[in-house]
Amino acid sequence: MRKVIHIGLPKLSEEELIEIGDIAQRVIIDYIFEHLAKSEVRDMEVTARINQGETLDLELEVYVEVPIFVRVDVESLIDEAIDKAYEVVERHLRKLAKGKGNEGREEAEEASGKSK
Predict the structure, then answer these.
(1) Could you give all domains of the chain from N- to C-terminal order, each with its CATH number?
(2) Sorting pLDDT into bands at 50, 70 and 90, what band is 113?
(3) Cα within 13 Å of Cα(31), Cβ side
(4) Residues 53-56: contacts with CB within 8 Å, 24+ apart?
(5) Tens digit of each residue's pLDDT (9 = 90 or more) over 58-74
(6) Strands, DSSP E only, in the chain?
């Protein structure tokens, strides 16, 4: 079971959303190739879909095809790679939320005439 964690994100720009998808894809690909040689992977497809409404939804879809002689539980490997990607993306989003939160606080302090 997965629980939902409210990070309290500000509105993200298109570039930030693209970066999140890129990070997730890169983590998955790196994880797969940490466990399999490139020659053992016949085909791989990693898709990230991001929807930002009231919440930020990230859907990751991974397909990996290996030859029959490669002894690996592909489904478990994919699940582990996806879990790792979600962990990395969550850390990245927390940094974004913290950074933007601090920027907003600094702007508010400057507007009110207070400084650190």
Answers:
(1) 14-101 (3.30.300.100)
(2) very low
(3) 23
(4) 56/9, 56/12, 56/93
(5) 899 999 999 999 999 99
(6) 43-52, 56-65
21 vs 50: CA distance, rounded Å = 7
pLDDT tens digit sequence for 7-45? 567 788 899 999 999 999 999 999 999 999 999 999 999
For 101, the token pair is 């939160």
**Whether the Cβ atoms of residue 45 and residue 71 lie closer than 8 Å to each other:** no
Where does residue 44 rank: exposed (0-12), middle (13-18), buried (19+ CB within 10 A)?
Answer: middle
Region of residue 113 (left: phi > 0; alpha: psi -120 to 50; beta: else): left
Residue indicated by tokens 């997730």:
24
- Using only C-alpha atoms, what is the Rg of the chain? 19
